[in-house]
Amino acid sequence: MKVAVVSRATDISDVLPTLPLLNHEIQLLKAETNSIRLLADCNVVIIDVTGNDLLAARDFCRTVSASHPDLPVVAAIAESSLIALDGSWAVDDFMLPTSTPVEIDARLRLLLMRRPVPVEQADDSHVAAIGGLVVDDITYVARVDGKPLDLTYKEFELLHFLVKNAGRVFSREQLLQDVWGYDYFGGARTVDVHVRRLRAKLGRDYEGVIATVRNVGYKAIDPEEMD
């Protein structure tokens, strides 16, 4: 098994001390964008996210997952940072620095047994697409023409809901119920704020995918329908 470890550390033992004890081919790569293209022939990638900048670490994990959707991605993370780990990281598993060799080996073997679902073949309930906008609920990554978007969790949930139900008009109150949940006590203008941020992140060519229906709410439309 070929395992890539992406880290700012100079020694793999500084990331997962017991990993070198296993009989696997292990490659240490620098935590930089140029390293992502070197992951094509790896079986599993372990990304060191034990530093203090968890937001940057999450974004790097999402970029790797989007660039190599069939590659199992593992976060090597400190136990104190686990509270920040959620679906928006787009990782398949995590490992603690204290993990034993037996545990690491078992996790790696289970990851190889997983059957990744490519975006173009994924179940309709998980992937929604309009034109070049693809929203993947499996990896929690949205892409515009193949480029991943940096979305917050709620921005992603709102975009996925609208694109999945493209053509249907939803009031702000409906969106609050379906995306934020019945226990949310914020005002309906929260939806407007998230829509505005989404449009900015979608860019000029796709900002119109989220259309405003005057005096009603919002809907997602195909780019070909935009003026």
UniProtKB/TrEMBL annotation:
**InterPro entries, per database record:** GlnR_N, OmpR/PhoB-type_DNA-bd, Sig_transdc_resp-reg_C-effctor, WalR-like, WH-like_DNA-bd_sf
GO MF annotations in UniProt: phosphorelay response regulator activity; transcription cis-regulatory region binding
For this entry, the protein name equals: DNA-binding response regulator
| Annotated GO biological process | regulation of DNA-templated transcription
**Which SMART domains would you find in this protein's record?**
Trans_reg_C (SM00862)
How is this protein annotated for GO cellular component? cytosol; protein-DNA complex
> Does this entry carry the keyword Cell inner membrane?
no
Sorted alphabetically, the keyword list is: Activator, DNA-binding, Phosphoprotein, Transcription, Transcription regulation, Two-component regulatory system
